[in-house]
Amino acid sequence: MGAQSQIPLEPRKTPVQARSTVTVEAIYEATFQVLLAVGADRLTTTRVAERAGVSVGTLYQYFPNKQSLLLSVLEKHHDRVISAVELACRRNHGQQLSTMIESVVEAFVDAKTERSDISMALYATAVGVQERALLNKAGKRARAAMASMLATAPNTKFDDLPFTSLMLISAMGGATRAVLEAGATPKMVRSLRMQLVLLCRGFLMSAAGQA
Question: Of 91, 127, 138, 166, whose Cβ has the fewest other Cβ atoms within 10 Å?
């Protein structure tokens, strides 16, 4: 077993008390700020601790090393985005396909572009095995929520809901990333929402044999 696999990557402890939660949130925000200022390669736990206004020792109480910190920040970001998608899916069970897609696309795009600078900074960190595992885990959650919602669409039946959901989530993620990397002006984000709705709606109607 290599040295890399022996490095602890999980946070050391989960904040329970309000003060601990505030400290961890400050560390997360500081991590985002340092990422944006100097990039992942030059990010250090010392820089993050200084920006957060805590000691390095305090930071190490929660995150044993830089990679653990970056993984935790990446997981937090994915969870926020996927939670928004899951909520939109739950709220639209039984609705028409057009309503489902409009709501889910809006939830996804809004979550990704609310802090577009953070989304962009984290794209550069999601390159390792652990990072890809987090991305896959988030993707499974999104696809499960999408499939569960689509299964309730009235007068509509899909032959392969898991694959249909995979295509939808992939289209949403790929298109949104492309717009973010191209600059994501307010006009581009508005167009992204509209075009994604058209793209996803057309695909679903075709997949359901309604085109």
Answer: 127
Q: Which domain holds residue 185?
A: 73-207
Question: Pick from 19, 46, 64: which residue ends a domain?
Answer: 64
Question: Structure pTM?
Answer: 0.84
* Sole residue written with tokens 């653990």: 68
The residue out of 25, 45, 64 marking a domain boundary is 64
126, 138 in Cβ contact below 8 A? Answer: no
Q: How far apart are CA 99 and CA 102, in angstroms?
A: 5
With beta carbons less than 8 A apart as the criterion, state whether 189 and 179 touch.
Answer: yes
Confidence of residue 208 (pLDDT cuts 50, 70, 90): confident
* Residue in the structure block whose two tokens are 């997360």: 28
Residue 175 lies in a domain: yes
Q: Running DSSP on this structure, what letter comes out for residue 1?
A: -
Give the closest residue to 43 by CA, choosing from 51, 34, 56: 34
Which domain CATH number covers 29?
1.10.10.60
